Amino acid sequence: MRHTATIQALQKLLQDRLTTQPEILTAHSKDLSWHPSHLPDAVCYPISNQEIAAIVAICNANQTPLIPYGTGTSLEGHILPVLGGITLNLSKMNHILGFNEIDRDCTVQAGVTKFQLNKFLQDKGLFFAAGPGIDASIGGMMATGASGANAVMYGTVKDNVRGLKVVTADGKIISTRKRVQKSSAGYDLTQLFVGSEGTLGIITEVTVVLHPLPKFVAIAVVSFTSIEEAIEAAIQLNQSDLPLAMLELMDEAIINAINQYAQTDYPVQPTLFLELHSQKENLQVFYETIQRIVQQHQSTQMRWATETAAKEELFKARYDAIYAVKALDPEAVVWATDVTVPISRLAEIILKTKKALVELPLFGSLFGHVGDGNFHTILLCNFEDAQAMKRVKDLNHQMVLWALEMEGTCTGEHGIGYGKKEYLQMEFGESGIEIMNKIKKALDPNGIMNPKKIF
Ligand SMILES: Cc1cc2nc3c(=O)[nH]c(=O)nc-3n(C[C@H](O)[C@H](O)[C@H](O)COP(=O)(O)OP(=O)(O)OC[C@H]3O[C@@H](n4cnc5c(N)ncnc54)[C@H](O)[C@@H]3O)c2cc1C
Fold it and tell me: Which CATH architecture has domain 96-212?
């Protein structure tokens, strides 16, 4: 067994909250993506900041890799223990520590999930808006710099955090900022740890920003004859004064997958999903504005809902796009990737990508949070088919090159993880990477924190 001294010391500290059971190791060896699995040597479940500090100290003394783990939903091999070591599962750190109605913030342990937090907030007239539509942990979302469908109105997690508590790689517990709306005191340590993907330290507590629940919500689902028209409509909708909380594009391939997965009956055409949040009753005006714009772009159907049940029905399976695609071929490997470009270049890159997808000899689909220039492809591939795998890799590569040429980024929300390391180099160049490397070495000189990720 590798890392025996570390495991024995951790067993003494954590007792049955450390496990080497094969099925638990396997569950922590893989994400949903195409990246090959790697087993950790043990998985531990801490319950306090002090315990995490002690775990880090043990791993540091023995130079054992330590991989923080929230809910394991990241998509670029982030949580794979590529050198073995200890996976630190934060699911037992799931307490809400403080709620401040007047300040509109809430302090939670890192293992609290987005749905759990919003359930706690539901009778308080506030909600946590940022991050994916699935139930990821708040710590994991901060660590990946996540965002989601409603970033167009509420921003990403980077815009929705007041401060963090972090255990550093040398076992110190630090606060990155006071619980204030603004501060110009010193370097911004909060934003240093946000997006650091477990490579600099362990986020143990997060103070998040809350938003008032919108008084009026409406949903529109609009189908178009072509993806070109759908994108043009999206750009025009984005420039209007509609209170857009979500503006999503799905191509006909994803719509087809969703129809099969959730027994919905959306027309199998490129489709825009819109969500409007407003504190004023202007829904009829919004409806008319959307209709006017989409009709200029050959929309074929517009569905509209303002009542809760109808809204839920209309958005059924909208957040399950990846699972809907996977269900088409449960044996296949999912390859999900994302890039972001300035909105003015969005149509160009989406059309190039769509053309390339159509030419692939496998299932390829495209959807995007087009309100902020971010879009994804989801492909299904088979590891045994080397030729097809190569073409998928080439497409991924090409999409990043196009995005970088268009002043975009290699990832708008999934992060770098294991899968996009070479593209970080391209995006920042040698000097940028050198600075990041210096920060990594200063904060984690033994390289124990989630090794082989980002760089
Ligand atoms: C169906 C589906 C839909 C998705 N949609 C979106 C989307 O819309 N937007 C989006 O941004 N992402 C999306 N994702 C990706 C994923 O949900 C996000 O990356 C999410 O932020 C990961 O959170 P997690 O708790 O699962 O973190 P994990 O996957 O457990 O970890 C992610 C990374 O963060 C590190 N980490 C985790 N917790 C901590 C901590 N407490 N301290 C330090 N490091 C930590 C890990 O080491 C790892 O490097 C989607 C994924 C799936 C499967």
Answer: 2-Layer Sandwich (3.30)
